[in-house]
Write a structure and sequence with these properties.
With 413 residues, this protein is α+β, with helices and mostly antiparallel strands. The protein is built from twelve helices and ten strands. Helix 9 packs antiparallel against helix 11. The protein binds flavin-adenine dinucleotide and coenzyme A.
């Protein structure tokens, strides 16, 4: 595994930085204040070829890697968190699930939408199934040659602006027998039963709507079922495996926000004078800056490693453990770095006339959305211990019973 970027990758990074530091930076405060989806930024990303980067050439994309898409994400997020998130969802998550699991028809459809600037929505979370995502109750009932979906999701990023939706639902056959969990594709404006609910008033990342979505007899034809490779029975595991790409992307937005805050703090420390000296001359602040740089470098290395793990060990997606480790580390790092950088600005850090409070508010999300830092620790623990770690009471009791009978059997032998 190499950490040296190729010439081509450096060129992508530089082009992204150029756009991010001009148009995206100019719009950032207004996007936050107006809470409006940044369509101008989406156009800039689209014109630059920074959407649908991971779409293979045969479907009209440039066939780039997750690493390359993440280079763009970091640059965008360093100036504007919402734009970083748009770059994630236009390159990872739902679109990569479709590109790897979809039929030819689905790939063409999704590629066309995303390459034209759509940021697909991924619909997993429900009011009673957040961390416990596998306990979702949204159901898809087979009725002839279609599925009828009923249920409610909330905290759906891009609700009301995204066209393509990937909806996770519990699947039932015509006899009401549960088959597992599947992915269902629906396009806003073309599907009557896809209804927009209330928008959440969020702390940060205000340019992207987070909304409820209601499915009221939403009809999904069979050709829009995203069939997981191992079928509905293991559908949840397959779909979550695809979701690992988005976890790396989310970590990279947090990284970008930390980088933005650190860069501002570095400049400010050289300019701001107190006691007749630039504050950068005080060792207390020098060590804060040094710590920020260490944390950022470590986070970036971990995320790049996670992104590069895609395609290895038989999976086209980033390794689940590395994706979770990367998101835990980076999301927590970003909380610290954005807050320390804000601290270095003194009162100015607390003012909405400066970007520091926005960066800190935006960073606050990443230990929550996309798998909380606690849940991801359970994912990591389960994998490093090579143990199933059921979180439901019944699951835990069943495991304990199995262990007890195994021990009793061993003792009897
Ligand atoms: P809960 O699951 O209720 O958790 C509450 C607390 O309990 C947390 O601290 C959690 O860590 C802890 N906890 C829960 N279970 C355990 C456990 N077993 N062990 C230890 N601690 C535990 N979802 C989507 O489907 N699509 C989206 O596009 C989307 N976008 C989002 C955007 C934002 C800005 C946010 C904030 C959320 C978004 N989400 C989205 C939802 C997000 O993924 C969930 O919020 C997250 O999975 C946590 O679920 P919850 O909020 O219901 O918290
Ligand atoms: N990558 C690959 N496989 C995954 C996975 C991931 N990210 N998450 C779960 N799986 C697999 C598990 O390995 C398991 O496979 P196995 O049967 O071969 O052991 C299967 O899916 C079921 O997972 P398990 O951990 O047993 O499920 P659970 O019911 O205990 O639920 C999760 C735990 C997965 C729901 C929880 O860890 C989680 O990720 N919650 C956060 C949800 C989230 O990120 N929402 C974001 C919305 S945008």
């Amino acid at each position: 595994m190499t950490f040296n970027l190729t010439k081509d990758q450096i060129e992508i990074q530089q082009r992204a930085r150029q756009i991010a530091s001009s148009l995206i930076a100019e719009n950032a405060a207004e996007v936050d204040k107006s809470e409006q989806y940044p369509w101008d930024n989406v156009k800039a990303l689209t014109d630059a070829g920074f959407v649908g980067m991971t779409i293979p050439k045969e479907y009209g994309g440039p066939g780039r890697s997750f690493l390359e898409a993440n280079l763009v994400v970091e640059e965008m997020a360093a100036y504007c968190g919402p734009t970083g998130r748009i770059a994630v969802e236009a390159n990872m998550g739902a679109i990569s699930a479709v590109m790897h699991y979809g039929t030819d028809f689905q790939k063409r459809l999704a590629a066309e939408l995303v390459l034209a600037g759509d940021k697909p929505a991924i619909c997993i979370t429900e009011p009673d199934a957040g961390s416990a995502a596998s306990q979702m109750t949204t159901r898809a009932d087979k009725r002839g040659d279609k599925y009828v979906i009923n249920g409610k999701k909330h905290w759906i990023t891009g609700g009301g602006v995204s066209k393509l939706h990937l909806i996770f639902a519990r699947v039932f056959d015509e006899n009401n027998v549960e088959l597992g969990i599947g992915g269902f594709l629906a396009i806003r404006g073309e599907a009557d039963g896809l209804k927009l609910g209330a928008r959440e008033p969020t702390m940060g990342l205000r340019g992207i709507p987070e909304t409820e979505l209601l499915f009221e007899d939403l009809e999904v034809p069979e050709n829009m079922v995203l069939m997981p490779p191992s079928g509905f029975k293991r559908g949840f595991a397959d779909l979550m495996n695809a979701y690992n790409s988005q976890r790396v992307g989310a970590g990279t937005v947090a990284l970008g926000l930390a980088v933005g805050a650190y860069r501002n703090a570095l400049e400010f420390a050289k300019e701001r004078e107190q006691f007749g000296r630039p504050i950068a001359e005080f060792q207390g602040l020098q060590w804060m800056l040094a710590d920020m740089s260490v944390q950022i470098e470590a986070a970036r290395s971990l995320l790049h490693k996670a992104a590069l793990s895609a395609g290895q060990n038989g999976s086209p997606f980033p390794d689940p453990t590395l994706a979770a480790q990367g998101k835990i580390f980076t999301s927590e790092m970003a909380l610290k770095v954005t807050n320390d950088a804000l601290q270095m600005f003194g009162a100015r850090g607390y003012s909405r006339n400066y970007p520091m409070e926005r960066l800190a508010r935006d960073a606050r999300m990443f230990t929550i959305g996309g798998g909380t830092a606690q849940i991801l620790r359970t994912v990591v623990a389960s994998r490093i211990l090579e143990m199933k770690l059921p979180q439901t009471r019944e699951g835990f009791l069943q495991m304990a019973e199995r262990e007890a009978s195994k021990k009793a059997l061993q003792a009897a032998e």
